[in-house]
Amino acid sequence: MSFNEPAAGGRAPSRLFLTGGSGYVGRNLIRRLVADGVQVVALARSAAAVETVRDLGAQPFEGDLFDPRLAQAMAGCDALVHAAAAADTDHGAGVEARLERINVEGTRAVLAAAKVAGVSRSVLISTESVLLDGAPLVGATEDHAYPARPAGAYSKSKAQAERLALAMSAPGFEVMAVRPRFVWGRDDTTALPQLAEAVRSGAFAWIDGGRYRTSTTHVANLCEGVVLALRNGAGGQAYFITDGEPAEFRAFATRLLATQGLTAPDKTVPRDLLKTIATIGDALAAISGGRIKGPLSRQVYATSAVEVTVSIAKARAALGYAPVVSREHGLAELAG
């Protein structure tokens, strides 16, 4: 096989430790794993998070990524999913420091604890953003090089986290990464609420008409990819997980908003203007140490203003992955 590992039908975990369990992806992972009969221990940073993961059927462990009891909490777990991350898309020194601590050092701490605890297989929830630099990303595969100049602090920190995680992989301690793009679907607390708020506030505009393509990942498809990576993935490897064929951004966003009874305006802004604004904004933030910030960062521009499409050929061949929820079904679920 050209992708290192065939789909091998490996053993599902019996007990799994999850970080970020009260977040959007984490909540859906708990539902899926519990339904599969997996015992889930979920890291929870607050009383509210403890209640959330417990209500979903997981056993909460109250603490954070740097808790010295983490290895003890993972005892008896044969798998780890590290879903916790900071997703700041702003710019400035303070943002970079926060992302470095949570995304990079937090990943290092969690994986070190997992190794001590004897966890044998781990999956990092990564992102296509590790490859973004502001230029279009078209049909990218997993061997696409990390950019010399990442789009922003978020892309930089997630790439660093992914690199260190995959480098830690070893026989008996296999670490994989899954890379979704534009996660959406049931229980969404990220993409759809942000789009809806922009429309309601009058701040929404299509970038150059919105006719460029994007890959998307229904949250149930992401969960399927994580489960298959745990079973069949090869240590040290990354896998893109999406809904399959890309969609036109405008067409998909229009239908996504329609599930909430919203209609996007026809207003459009030139891409070149936004790119200039983002570049100047990042420069001002760098010069001022984050005290002066523009209305748009290069990170946001790279994520939302150009085509970003990726291939799932590797996940299909190596993991046996196929989307379990179509866009049509996912949109109907949201509308219902």
How would you characterize the overall build of this protein?
It contains twelve helices and 15 strands. It has a domain at 15-183 and 216-244 and 310-325: 3-Layer(aba) Sandwich (Rossmann fold), CATH 3.40.50. The radius of gyration is 19 Å and the shape is globular. It has helices at 24-35, 47-55, 70-73, 93-117, 153-168, 191-201, 219-232, 249-258, 271-287, 298-304, 313-319, 327-335, and strands at residues 15-19, 39-44, 59-62, 79-82, 121-125, 137-140, 174-180, 183-184, 206-207, 213-214, 217-218, 238-241, 247-248, 268-269, 308-310. The protein is α/β, with parallel strands linked by helices. The protein starts with 14 loop residues before the first strand and ends with a helix. Helix 1 (24-35) packs across helix 7 and helix 4 packs parallel to helix 5. The protein has a seven-stranded parallel β-sheet with strand order 3-2-1-4-5-7-12, with helices on both faces. A two-stranded parallel ribbon has the order 6-15. Residues 1-8 have low confidence and may be disordered.
